[in-house]
């Protein structure tokens, strides 16, 4: 059951420092519903660009993107923004929380704004999510008053408050120490076990081993499935 599909995706930047400017080259990709899919590759390989193109944050130079069978790369900016708000959740390297709102308010705001939901229902669910993300003790603190790991756990709660069909994560552990990284990965794994489809970009093998499917990108090309068995998590 394919939830997200890229077909013959090319991305070329006019003013890239690279001579050709080609960042994605003829990429075909199927992301399956219920999977925890990881895209690995070296820095500069094109991983983030692929995630942005698949999630409608950026447009391919050519090619097609389908979500649940419907083409989305041709939607206008407004309809794309509506689709993203309703169907997609995002986690980045930095939590990007709003600085003058508490963690709980940050999570609630995503529920009110994006989905036009009932206020009480959103608040109850936001509190429950912060509990599941082991950050309930900090619900009423500002982002500046919590650790990097705590802020990132709240950012994950915010990303899933509207039950996205697809959760996109771009190096979600990139700014965290090892213990906090493991916490964040535990939470993503738990969300996935409960049915959340996840597409995560990382160059961190410790992150990749949590997934059930690893794709490898090199110089803008998708090399296909990566044999994870050759790695041991504690090497
Ligand atoms: P990765 O996520 O694998 O580190 P990126 O997708 O961020 O790789 O970048 C791939 C290549 O595209 C890099 O060479 C980068 O310099 C280039 N690139 C990314 N964004 C832009 C942009 N807005 N303009 C020009 N080049 C870009
Ligand atoms: P690291 O900063 O190395 O990733 P943690 O995020 O676990 O490790 O932070 C360790 C401790 O440092 C936290 O328990 C917290 O008390 C404090 N801390 C970290 N970041 C901040 C911050 N932005 N503001 C206040 N305290 C912080």
TrEMBL record:
Pfam family, one: ABC_tran
One GO molecular-function entry: ATP hydrolysis activity
GO cellular component terms, A-Z: plasma membrane
InterPro entries registered for this protein in UniProt: AAA+_ATPase, ABC_transporter-like_ATP-bd, ABC_transporter-like_CS, ABC_transpr_LolD-like, MacB-like_ATP-bd, P-loop_NTPase
Gene3D superfamilies reported for this sequence: P-loop containing nucleotide triphosphate hydrolases
Keywords associated with the record: ATP-binding, Nucleotide-binding, Transport
Keyword GTP-binding on entry: no
Keyword flag Kinase: no
Domain ABC transporter: 4-235
Domain of life the protein comes from: Bacteria
Protein family per UniProt: Belongs to the ABC transporter superfamily.
The protein's name in its UniProt record: ABC transporter ATP-binding protein
Organism whose genome encodes this protein: Bifidobacterium oedipodis
